[in-house]
Write a structure and sequence with these properties.
The protein is an alpha/beta fold. Helices cover 42% and strands 13% of the residues. The chain has a five-stranded parallel sheet with strand order 3-2-1-4-5. α4 links the parallel β1 and β2.
Length: 185
């Protein structure tokens, strides 16, 4: 008596139709690129990184760390070279104007808390004398003013003090002003 073929056996039939070839192609492709991001998705992400003014490596690491896309860039007034006046340095303003995301600024005292064009919102930057609860509260207020979730924000700063704001606000990432603006002075 002949044994009944098991699951997955083709019983001697020849499957050469379109559906069979499509199934074989999909299975082979899935086996080939296990865990890899398809090239189409990488291309979309490269374009998104460029639209945010970030290099792909920075964008990809922030996206992988937070599990979400970047919705906003939050600059310190130092990063925008707003040192003595509430105006952004012209070359930096041109780059910020091209960003395809929400844009905000944390303004250091004694400058007025205003969002100069092309920024959309502004908030007071924490002071050196602020304790952790005060620092966290002022940064949370800045995020509420922008209406963006913390982990979807990239903080662009110019000092190590500003880098400490990133964990305090639970931001998605931190980029130095030199890295973001490419060493523009």
């Amino acid at each position: 008596m002949a044994e009944t073929p098991g699951i997955g056996h083709n019983s001697g039939r020849d499957y050469t139709g379109y559906t069979a070839r499509l199934h074989q192609w999909r299975r082979a492709r899935r086996d080939l690129i296990k865990g890899a991001v398809p090239v189409e998705v990488v291309r979309l992400r490269v374009r998104r990184a460029a639209a945010l003014g970030l290099d792909y490596g920075t964008y990809a690491s922030i996206r992988a760390g937070t599990g979400r896309d970047i919705a906003a860039l939050l600059f310190s007034s130092n990063a925008l070279r707003m040192i003595r006046t509430a105006e952004i340095e012209q070359s930096r303003a041109a780059k910020v104007a091209e960003v395809a995301a929400a844009r905000g600024v944390l303004v250091h005292a004694p400058l007025p808390v205003e969002a100069p064009p092309p920024l959309e919102w502004a908030s007071r930057a924490p002071q050196f004398t602020d304790r952790w609860p005060e620092l966290r509260a002022s940064l949370s207020e800045a995020l509420r003013a922008g209406g963006v979730p913390a982990d979807a924000v990239v903080l662009v700063g110019d000092t190590s003090f500003e880098a400490s704001w990133c964990p305090a606000m639970r931001a998605g990432g931190y980029v130095t002003a030199d890295a973001y603006f490419g060493g523009q002075s």
